[in-house]
Amino acid sequence: MKELRLMKGNEAVAEGAIRAGADGYFGYPITPQSEVMEYLMAQQPEKRTGMVVLQAESEVAAINMVYGGASTGKKVMTSSSSPGMSLMQEGVSYLAGAELPCLLLNVARGGPGLGTIQPAQADYFQSVKGGGHGDYNLIVLAPSSVQEMFDFAFLGFELAFKYRNPVLILSDGLIGQMMEKVELCEQMPRTTYFDRSWTLTGKPDGQERNIVTSLDLDASRQEIHNQHLQEKYRKCKETEVRYELIDTDDAEYLFVAYGSSARICQKAIQLGRGEGIKIGLLRPITLWPFPAKPLVELAPKMKGILSVEQSAGQMVEDVRLSVGCGVHIEHYGRMGGMIPTPEQVLENLKKLLITK
Amino acid sequence: MDIKDIIKPENLVYQKTPLMTDKPLSYCPGCGHGTAHRIVMEVIEEMGIQSETIGVAPVGCSVLAYDFMNVDMVGASHGRAPAVATGIKRCWPEKFVYTYQGDGDLAAIGTAETIHAANRGENITIIFINNGIYGMTGGQMAPTTLEGMKTSTSPYGRELKSMGNPLKMTELLAQLPGTCYVTRQSVHSPRNVRRAKKAVRAAFESQKENKGLSLVEIVSNCNSGWKMEPVASNEWMVEHMFPFYPLGDIKVDGKLVNNQ
What we know:
By secondary structure, chain A is of the alpha/beta class. Helices cover 41% and strands 20% of the residues of chain A. Chain A has helices spanning 9-19, 35-43, 45-48, 59-71, 82-97, 124-128, 146-163, 173-177, 219-239, 259-274, 292-298, 315-323, 342-354, and strands at residues 3-8, 24-27, 52-55, 76-80, 102-108, 139-141, 166-172, 179-184, 211-212, 243-246, 253-256, 279-284, 286-288, 304-308, 329-332. Chain A is globular and about 75 Å long. The model of chain A has no long low-confidence stretch (mean pLDDT 97). Chain B is α/β, with parallel strands linked by helices. Chain B has one domain: Rossmann fold, CATH 3.40.50. Chain B has helices at residues 3-6, 33-47, 65-68, 81-91, 103-109, 111-119, 160-163, 169-174, 190-208, 223-226, 230-244, and strands spanning 53-57, 72-75, 96-102, 125-130, 133-134, 140-141, 179-186, 213-219, 248-252, 255-256. Chain B has an eight-stranded mixed beta sheet, sandwiched between helices. In chain B, strand 5 (133-134) and strand 6 form a beta hairpin. Chain B is globular, with a radius of gyration of 18 Å. Classes of the chains: A alpha/beta, B alpha/beta. The interface between A and B is large, with 40 and 33 residues. Strand 9 of chain A pairs parallel with strand 2 (72-75) of chain B, so a sheet runs across the interface.
C-alpha cells in the first residue's frame, strides 16, 4: 500500500535521507533550510536506523565532518542555504578532489551577501561552474516538487557512490518550505559493505593502508589525477543527463526553467495556451550535466526561448552556449528573493520574444 | 668477531616500528616531528590497534604525515582536522581516531574546530606539535610565537600590543568538561621522549575507555624557522619556550592537576 504524507520540502529530503540508508548528517542552522536538521533530530534516526545526526559549530566544520565521514565510505550529507554554502566551498573542492561521495543540499535564498531569506536561484553559477577552487564538477540535481526532494535523496546517494563524487541538490526556499503530498518508499538498509580500494576502515593486516587526500605535490601526477577526474565527468555527461519536457510537441516558444521557476512556468504555459500562444517547457533535472542535447534538438523548432530563473540570468548562459546563434534567446527573472508570478512570466515572454 | 655474529635476534635492543614506513622523512634534520611521529606509531603498535586506527593529517609541515605513518589516513584542510576526525569517529565510534596538528593549524585557523570538538567531548586523540612558528610556509609568526620572538612576519620580534599574545591553547582546552586527558611534553631528550610516549599511550588508552578528548601537546623546536643549529634550537627551547609552556600533565582523568 502506498504511504502518502503531507510534508514540507525540507522534511521530505530529511525523511528521504533516512530511508535511503544515510549513515550521517552534519549541519548548521540557517534559514530557509533549518527544518532539515530539526526534522532529523525529532525523528531520532539513531534509533530508527543507526544514522548519526550532529549539529556542528559552523558550516565549515559541518562540511569537514562530511569529508571525514565520507572518507570512511559511509553515506553522509549536509544541508545549508546560500551564505552557508559559500562557507562550505573549500570543503566541497576537497571532497571533489579526493573523490569522496556525499550528498549536499542548498535550499537557496536571495543574495549576494547575507541577502534575504526568501527563495532565489542565484547560486546556479556556484553550483554548476565550480564554487570552490580548481577544475571539478558536482552532479547537480534540481527538484521542482516536494516529491523530488524526497526522491533525490535516494538518487543523490546513488549517483554519489556511482561516480565517487559529491552530489548537490540545488533547491530553493520555495521548494524547501512549501507542503505537498509525498509518496514515500520503503526503508533501505544502511550499507555494511566498504570498498577497501579507497575507504578508511583501518588497515587490515597484510594489506596496504589507504590514504584519502586531494594533495599531490608532484605537478605531473596531479595533472594525471585531473585528467582522470575529467574523464569521469565526461562519462557522467554521457549517461546522467536528466530533464523533463512539458507541452513541447507543438510548441513555438520554449521556457527553460528548473526548480520552483519550472512550476511557475507550467502555470504560465496554461495561461499562454489560453491566449493561443503555444509554449512548452524544458525542465533541466540535472543542472550539471546540463541537458544541452535535447535543447539543441528543440531549439530550431522554436520562434524563441526564454530562460526563466530567479536570478539576474545565470542558466541562460548555458542555454546560449548549448544552442548557439540563430535562435532568439532571452532571460527573465526576479532577484533578491522576489518570486515572479505566472502572469509576469507570460507578459515577459510576449514582451521579450513576440512583440520585440 | 664479525658484524654478522652481532646481528642476531637475541642482541636486538631497538627496532624501527613497522608502523613507520620506509619513506625518508621530509622534515629538516634536527626537527622534532620525526620523533613525535615515531612515538605515536610505537604506541599504536604496542596497543595492537593498527587495523582499528584512522589518522588525520593537517596542513603544515606534517601535511605528508600519511606518507610516514603506516595506518589508514586522511589529509584534512587547514585547521579542520578535529572536524574531519569528528566525522570519522561518529561514523566509526569503535575505531581509534587521532589528529596530528601543528600550532598554526590547531591554534589559529582551526581554533573553532579544536575548541568545539573538545567541548563536545569527541572521543578522539589530538597530537599537537607546538614550535611557535609556521615552519612549512617559511617561518611566519604563529599564534604560539613568544613575545619578542623574531619570525618572517614579526621581523622585529612579536610585539604584544599590535600582534596579540601567545596563545596557551592546551591550558584553555583543559578547562572544558569534554577533555579527559591534557598534557604538555617534549621530545628533545631521551628522558622526555620516554615521557612523551607514556603520555601518548595514556591519551590512546583514554580514548579506548571512551573518556572524551585527549590531547598531547609536544613543545618542539623548529631549527630552520628559528634559524639555529639543531642543538642550539633545543637549548633555546628549554630556556625560552618551557618557562611559558611548562611541561607536565594539565588534566588527568578529567581533573585539573596542580590547581590549574
